[in-house]
Amino acid sequence: MTEPTTRIEPGTTFTDDRGRLAQLHGIGVLRIGDRYVAWGEDKAAGGTFTAVACYSSPDLATWRYEGDALGLADGDLAPGRVVERPKVLRRPDGAFVMLLHIDSADYADARVGFAIADDPAGPYRYVGGERPLGNLSRDIGVYQEDGVGYLLSEDRDRGLHIYRLADDYLSVAELVATTLKDHGSHGYESPALVRHDGLYYLFGSDLTGWSTNDNKVATAESLNGPWSPWSDIAPPGSATFDSQVSTIVPVSTVAGERHVYVGDRWNRHDLERSAAVWLPVRIGGGEATLEWRESWTLAEL
């Protein structure tokens, strides 16, 4: 059996406790107790749905497979469907709600789906999907603050939306804000959002398909905005070290809160073996800066 790595090596694939390739594409991460729990797209079937896999880790470097949190079923979860970007929030009542990009193989459906479970590893019960307030919804992210859940959703017709979820997190209640690309007609996709020192940082990727680009960040003092102009998070022209943001993970250290950028390096011809780019991202003072390291650990943040 292949031994799991003990250091984080950006731009590589990595194995779990079984010695198998970890399927953590389009990842969502939550800190639960003394472990990080992560959910990712299992790309064994390529671009169409196989499962949402769940893993846990004490250090973001060694991963234990917890099972498939969501599997094939009729309807939205049938073979040949697109189920992407699994992101999980824990409701104030303790239930876990998974939000997903739900689509047809030609990406014409453009909906957000909802599933619920009592345990973070599932199994999750899929409860349905919708176009939030009638808008297109493809790449998604989530955010939570003071018990309130939010959906971040890319709508190429109108921009990148921030929605407040209903109290049960199983539907969208209202539109909070919409951001557009600077001097552009659309917003960014694959969004992620964190708050640090009283300022919100919204991350996104340009709409270039499987190809990577220079990912951006915008800031605001309120989720309603106004949002700042977008700026690069990595050296211009690096295509964000050849990756697309999937999530930003807050990490508590003795020096205070730090953050980890998690991105996908999509290989459209072999999606199952697409590499992951995990890097420290320095957030503060209205800026976010991604730092390249060949290998690192949480203790080095």
What do these coordinates show?
The protein has 301 residues and is mainly beta. The chain is 1% helix and 49% strand. A hairpin with a 2-residue loop joins strand 19 (275-284) and strand 20 (287-290). The longest helix has 4 residues, at 239-242. It starts with 24 loop residues before the first strand and ends in an 11-residue tail after the last strand. The mean pLDDT is 96.
Walk me through the topology.
Layout lengths: L24 E8 L2 E8 L8 E7 L6 E8 L10 E9 L5 E8 L7 E7 L7 E6 L9 E6 L2 E8 L3 E7 L6 E8 L9 E8 L2 E7 L10 E5 L10 E2 L6 H4 L1 E10 L2 E10 L9 E10 L2 E4 L11
Antiparallel strand pairs: 1-2, 2-3, 3-4, 5-6, 6-7, 7-8, 9-10, 10-11, 11-12, 13-14, 14-15, 15-16, 17-18, 18-19, 19-20
In short:
With 301 residues, the chain is an all-beta fold. The chain has 1 helix and 20 strands. It has one domain: Glycosyl hydrolase domain, family 43 (Tachylectin-2, Chain A, 5 Propeller).
Query: How are helices and strands ordered from N to C?
Result: EEEEEEEEEEEEEEEEHEEEE
Unreliable parts: none
What is the CA-CA span between the terminal residues? Answer: 30 Å
In the sheet with the most strands, the strands line up as: 1-2-3-4
Number of strands: 20
Structural class: mainly beta
Entry keywords:
mainly beta, Tachylectin-2, Chain A, 4-stranded antiparallel sheet, 20 strands
